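Hi,

Apologies if this is the wrong queue. I'm a grad student, and the batch job for Radical SAM protein from Agathobacter ruminis produced an output file that my downstream script rejects. I'm not sure whether the problem is my script or the file. Here is the sequence I used:
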Amino acid sequence: MKNQLELCNLCHRNCGVDRHAKQTGFCGMTDELRIARAALHFWEEPCISGTNGSGAVFFSGCSLRCIYCQNHEIANGNRGIAVSDERLSDIFLELQEQGAHNINLVTPGHYIPQIKEALLRAKEFGLSVPIVYNTGSYENPEALKTLEGLVDIYLPDFKYMDSKLAQAYSKAPDYPAVAQAAIAEMVRQTGPCRFEAEPGESLMTRGTMVRHLVLPGALDNSKQVLEYLYRTYGNRIYISLMNQYTPLKRIEAYPQLNRKVTEEEFEEVFSYLCDLGIENGYVQEGETAEESFIPSFDGEGVIAK
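Support response: The file is valid. Your script probably expects a header line. Output copied below for reference.
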């Protein structure tokens, strides 16, 4: 863990900063583990949230910081409470005691060494629910390999096949290639998706489910993402097509993003998904582009009671 943080290359930014010396790279975080919220979360895909909720742990900082990010309050590192590896381990166990179907690590990539230690400790003390790794996919596959055997479900985004959009919205023109390599490592680790039947529901217990958020005016990008995923993985993965894009006041300088995705736009992408023959997955329906889907990053569940 020490070497990884002394010359940090945990994500693809490869900043090379000494986080132990309190230097910060693109993610904005030192070696101090910071969490903004740890609570039951009910707004993931049905096979992740179930009826009891997913035990979501929201980590501060991010290696992408997309300009339209709904979680921008924590992505820029302005929210969050410092905790020890031991406290993180206890948080996992507390969420399991609350009935969480899984532990959902949200934007965890820049904390992989600390998370690994916390997971190993928690498992010694009885952590048994699946571990979900929820990421924007700007990941270093070598760092992901250190989690093999600890992560049960990968829940990555695949945001762009268009490098120009990746540069404009996430300052990552190489995102398509980086995400492809990262997702390939995730699928290698988990293999085909598996589900377990519970009364009235089916919960995912292993596998990779790739999310794609449709952006306004970027339908060709969405179609390219869907085609790549299906041609590459077929039914080995699940695909989640999302229409919850929420225009925020902070992006008024980007008029192309300053509106919701229209019904016609989303229907066009959905029809393309069907034409490809994709069957394994989820599609958001109805009015989901509401800020109510953005949780309060108020430190809930972070400090021991």
